[in-house]
Amino acid sequence: MTLRTLGEHACHGGTQGFYAHESRTCGTEMRFSVYRPPQAQAGRVPVLWYLAGLTCTEETFATKAGAQRFAAQHGLMLVAPDTSPRLRLPGDDLAWDFGLAAGFYVDATVAPWAAHYRTYSWITAELPELIAAHFPAEPARQGVMGHSMGGHGALTLGLRHPDRYLSVSAFAPIVAPMQVPWGQKAFAGYLGEDRSRWAEHDATALVVRRPRRDSLRIDQGSADTFLEKQLKPELFLAAAEQAGQPVEYHLREGYDHGYYFIQSFIAEHLAFHAQRLL
Amino acid sequence: MTLRTLGEHACHGGTQGFYAHESRTCGTEMRFSVYRPPQAQAGRVPVLWYLAGLTCTEETFATKAGAQRFAAQHGLMLVAPDTSPRLRLPGDDLAWDFGLAAGFYVDATVAPWAAHYRTYSWITAELPELIAAHFPAEPARQGVMGHSMGGHGALTLGLRHPDRYLSVSAFAPIVAPMQVPWGQKAFAGYLGEDRSRWAEHDATALVVRRPRRDSLRIDQGSADTFLEKQLKPELFLAAAEQAGQPVEYHLREGYDHGYYFIQSFIAEHLAFHAQRLL
What we know:
Two copies of one chain form a homodimer.
Chain A: E1 4-11, E2 14-23, E3 28-36, E4 45-51, H1 60-64, H2 68-74, E5 77-81, H3 119-134, E6 137-147, H4 149-160, E7 165-171, H5 181-191, H6 195-199, H7 203-209, E8 216-221, H8 227-231, H9 233-243, E9 247-252, H10 259-277
Parallel strand pairs in A: 4-5, 4-6, 6-7, 7-8, 8-9
Antiparallel strand pairs in A: 1-2, 2-3, 3-5
Helix pairs in contact in A: 7-9
């Protein structure tokens, strides 16, 4: 489990780093970023995972969200994995919502994706081991958040692993991939037509069967152009209510889908996680 | 003086916008960004100009610095002009430190640059008029800051127009362009070999003749790879001391030249300007 350092930068008294490793899960080099807060110089600190959206990389959150300021205040490590393998497969760049930068946090079962697009197992199994081995992370205290496709990732990982992730939040998440075009295309392409496999990766389907005891937090912009066709938070909220899953849902008037929205409410999300992880 | 809106995004209760206009000064379309804080809904607010560095655009500061949070707290408008015209001229992309994205905040006198590379007059004359006409800006309360090449811009504009810019700060500025490779190349290319013209755009030369009464603020990273050859803050600090120009100089241990450094100290810079502009 060796690590290749791509770059490290002092940031808010800590270190923003970019790394790569040869992933046995994905059968190729995978990238991720880690922010180590100043508190990590004195001992292990809780880890907050951030899963990014379509078109993003391991750099997007580090560059645009302004989260390091609050990670440094609370003493949280931030880990942001890339959104897909970067080796080239036939057809991986035909669309911006499938293939490159669109891994959807599943383990693909359909060729040619099945050999490499295994970001679910990479992020839940291989990468946490690597992080714990190379960084002062405290494995018993982890939270997960994400945006859009990564909001889907955060909710599904959080619902499937309630003991692993002690806190879960999302910005403008895809909450019901089985019922919207982005998710239907991705799941058909990566998982094939067996819909029983899809349900394991659909937050709205999962929450009915496996509600958590703690509140999830979701922030959604009202001016988000993907709101009506791709995000549909009302589907998740209804299922959560039915299942007894508490959700702190904040509809933000006038905000759109991008990182200007995320930077506006990132402090609240980090405080939410800090309260549960510290 | 018409304005073309490229995009607007809700951000920290205000609006982050991107705009273009046909500049009579530059003889081409020029771009800039404006952050309007929430206080601008109720009346005119002070304006803080941000001048960016080599390779940057009007988007870089808006995307990477995290300044909007503090502009919203203080009630400051942020204006960030692009770093050069974007029409294509022969040889404008042969180097990353001359031509495109490298206007150096001067009015070129050498062909072909002289017809378009007039960002000094664009930023000090035409653009302020446009801003005052289209946005709730208070022209009597303006400050200027910048980074690297834009730090050079901020210091030279601030020293030449002490009554216009009530507060001046810089991150990792080029302080003595006449004495370093970046500046020598740019000034020779844009201004020709007459060094008397160069001195008007050299902060170290200017401060001796025109010190301000108020303190300038400079933050500089100790791990900045450009520190020794291109930035040389000691040249400016010595000239400022000789001239009686107060400088609040902060050498930041371990920080490099990029936006992880800027985001780490942006709150302090906005507080510095707010104290003088509000």
